Amino acid sequence: MDHVQLLTKPVAASITKPIELYIFIDPLSANSLRMQTVLRKLQLEYDHYFTWRYVLSTKLASLNTLGRRTKGCLTGTQLDFTHPALPSIAIKAAELQGKRAAARYMLKLQEHALLKTKEVNSYAALIDIAKETAIDVEEFISDFGSKEAARAFQCDLHITREMEVDEVPSIVFFNERIEDEGLKVSGMYPYEVYVQILQEMMSEEVMSNPLPSFDELFVRYPILTTYDVAQIYSITEQEAERELKKRMLQQKIERIHNNEVTLWRHKHKI
């Protein structure tokens, strides 16, 4: 691999499992969505070996006016505005309610972005998305305009610069030995490459968990693309679609789509 580099582990990071992954993504980019598919399969098979955190690495020209404009919006002097940083700050605002809240919010945000059902760079749309997600909306609105959410996003950008991540998505692997360097893998590789890296960092053979059934998969990940399902089970997209249609007929999942993308959603999950 040409895009592999050794890095020093951040002092503030802590590990409860032997390996920690820093996953650098732009939450709305196509390649980052594919990286999330890789992460889901890694979680299903090997999450007993690693913890992980997303680092939002949205490329931005300027953040100079964002704080003033957000404050104006919250005080009613400006009803709405758009900015490419807003989706990332919204995710960090949701994250102040916990990692799971942020994951639910990001999933709903990505759903609207893929289906083109909302202008996801819009402040008003991002508030509406919070209302569709199982989080405290009033707290989210307060946090969205807070220094804490903006600072959390800026911290992610700082980590991106500190680790010299210039390609998104990227993953940095750290082990539990603080003195050891991390391994930065820039860009996208086949799933088997990440498993191999995990095994090399463990210095022993890693044992995979069995993959869940289709029904169990949608309990854990309530919205998936055909590509997600195909990659997780190592089958073709045609085979995945046949299985998904069977479960749609059984009314276990529903299909939502536009001319560009098809999503499959668990019918009993928000």
TrEMBL record:
Pfam families: Thioredoxin_5
InterPro entries registered for this protein in UniProt: Adapter_SpxH, Thioredoxin-like_sf
Gene Ontology CC: one annotated term: cytoplasm
Location in or out of the cell: Cytoplasm
Family: Belongs to the SpxH family.
Keywords attached to this entry: Cytoplasm
Gene3D superfamilies listed in its UniProt record: Glutaredoxin (3.40.30.10)
Task performed by this protein: Adapter protein required for efficient degradation of Spx by ClpXP under non-stress conditions. Interaction with Spx stabilizes Spx and exposes the C-terminus of Spx for recognition and proteolysis by ClpXP.
Subunit annotation: Interacts with Spx.
Protein's name in the database: ClpXP adapter protein SpxH
